[in-house]
Amino acid sequence: MKPSRPKALISWSSGKDSAFALHEIRRSGEFDVVGALTTVTETFERVSIHGVRQEVLHAQLDAAGLPPRIVPIPYPCPNEIYEARMGEAVAQAVRDGITHIIFGDLHLADIRAYREQKLAGSGLAPVFPLWQRPTLPLAHAMIASGLEARLATVDLKYLPAEFAGRRFDASLLADLPVGVDPCGENGEFHTCVVAGPFFSKRLSVVTGERVERDGYVYCDLVLHEP
């Protein structure tokens, strides 16, 4: 009888990095991924930071075969509230027999250190399957795998507003200004995944209006059922 694999959650942002981390973990067969942990901003009913609608999030998780574990947070969200609510979610995961949580972080050492510090002693160990992979080859590997995504959020310090809503593809990579990370790892942009080897079906989305808030442009991505 084969020993059971340890249970894990994926920290699901709705974007390409968490989706590709899921893909790599599933390919390795090391963990049984039993759910997706996502923060949703209550005020807007959208995925935090990425600005993706909840109905798109649920369509993603349905296609990925992942039960959602939603952590609601206010806007603006003081750090103590964020940490308290995430702490509750972590404690519940441990009670449910989950031992690991998978992150799509690439090379921001301070973010990794923060996660490791907050999870230390919690019973939930962090896993970083994409850690320190060079971002240009990684971006090409994502695209080659069949991953499809759109830019949901753009930081105006790095990119003009018209990049919001664009496809994450070779054409986009070629158009990125010098100094912008190909995976947006420094926060230059955030994505919404609509297809890939981690989904049972492709999501059909259309681009809606662009909204500027707090120095960012958000492109509304709306599910389209033909």
Helix-strand blueprint:
Elements: E1 7-11, H1 16-28, E2 32-41, E3 46-47, H2 54-64, E4 68-73, H3 79-95, E5 100-102, H4 109-119, E6 125-127, H5 135-144, E7 148-155, H6 170-175, E8 189-195, E9 205-213, E10 216-223
Parallel strand pairs: 1-2, 1-5, 2-4, 5-6
Antiparallel strand pairs: 2-3, 7-8, 7-10, 9-10
Characterise the protein shown here.
The protein has about 230 residues and is an alpha/beta fold. It has a single domain, classed as Rossmann fold. The protein contains six helices and ten strands. It is globular. It starts with 6 loop residues before the first strand and ends with a strand.
Give the class from helix and strand content and strand pairing: alpha/beta
Radius of gyration: 17 Å
Largest sheet, in brief, is:
6 strands, mixed
Distance between the terminal alpha carbons, to the nearest Å?
46 Å
The name of the CATH topology is: Rossmann fold
* Helix percentage: 25-40%
Task: Give the domain tally.
Answer: 1
What average pLDDT do the residues reach? 96
- Can you tell me the CATH class? Alpha Beta
Overall geometry comes to globular
Tally of helical runs: 6
Task: Write the element-wise H/E pattern from the N-terminal end onward.
Answer: EHEEHEHEHEHEHEEE
Q: What is the second-level CATH architecture? A: 3-Layer(aba) Sandwich
What is the fourth-level CATH superfamily? HUPs
Percent of residues in β-strands: 25-35%
Low-confidence parts, pLDDT < 50 over ≥5 residues?
Answer: none
Number of E-type strands: 10
Summed up:
This protein has 226 residues and is an alpha/beta fold. It is built from six helices and ten strands. The protein has one domain (7-223): HUPs (Rossmann fold).
